[in-house]
Amino acid sequence: MIRYAGMLAVSLVLAAGAVGSAATTDLDRAVPHYDHIVVILEENKGNTTVLERGLAPSISALSKEYGSATAMYAEVHPSEGNYVALLGGDTFGIHDDDAWYCVPGSTREFCKNSTKPDYVAHEIDAPNLGTQLRAKGLDWRAYLEDLPEPGSTAIMSRGTATTPPALYAAKHTGFTNFKSTIDDPNRAQRLVGFDRWRSDLAAGTVPAFALVVPNQCNEMHGIDASAGNGVPADCSDKEGVIRRGDAYARDLVTAIQASSLWKTGNTAIVITWDEDGGGDRVAGAKVSCCVVDARIPGGGHIPTVVITNHGPRGLNDPTEYNHFSLLRTFEDALGLDGHVGHADDQTVRPMTPLFALRH
Questions:
Q1: Global confidence as pTM
Q2: How many domains does the chain fold into?
């Protein structure tokens, strides 16, 4: 295991940089080419809650029909560091959900943890999946439900007389933490709402990599009923929000499978989670793998389902993986140059069996 802490982690990653290729292996080379990868990112639920308790029948059925990573782990608690890890190969020392613009000592809104020891700048100037894709002439788009407007850098949606606040939350985007996104003159074409998701899917213009993030009522996070303004009953209920998110994920997958993305080339849909949320965590159980942050050692055992149009069926892969493994697999499948951050570590393996093609 590799152990690191706080500012040391950031300095090491920024020094090393960038995109590495020293760890490319036969497993990497065995990952087939994919034309499209769509990631549906869910919130705060563990493997047992989602796949064993009967609260998410649609996702459970998909895991049995297609592929499931049965030993998948998140990096840290709370959410934000895991989103960043999935895209940049490191948490970069982020151990809270503060705003992307926060720096040590900041008094700005949504920077409430900025005076804590080892606090780091939350805007990251480092290579990431987005920069890799653009360097290869490919594109990405984050489809963010209830984003206030295309390209918005708002930290949350404010709500209306009939809708609750924080349906959209920037802490659940990942891409907004990277300077390359904030400075992108075409940001409004890459951070978009679900209206764009529906039109791109219908037109067959979804880019090579799509991050699909439902709002906090639809991705199993939930919003407390005290927020008012019409919080749906199942959005504030611990079990109801899982059932709601399950049905929503089912509809997203169904729409993709009915589109041209599913009918041409190789397409993968990944349903994964940021962290386990603690609801089904057992004392002493394993909470991390592959690369461990000594300050917050692991984000728990999370479900991850891989659905491919030409890949395996009925596969349970028991290999230990984490978000860095997913990132490494995306880099391999999309033909990108090398691996960023800890995705290049020899302890991190690509998820080759779950993306392999049937013959």
A1: 0.94
A2: 1
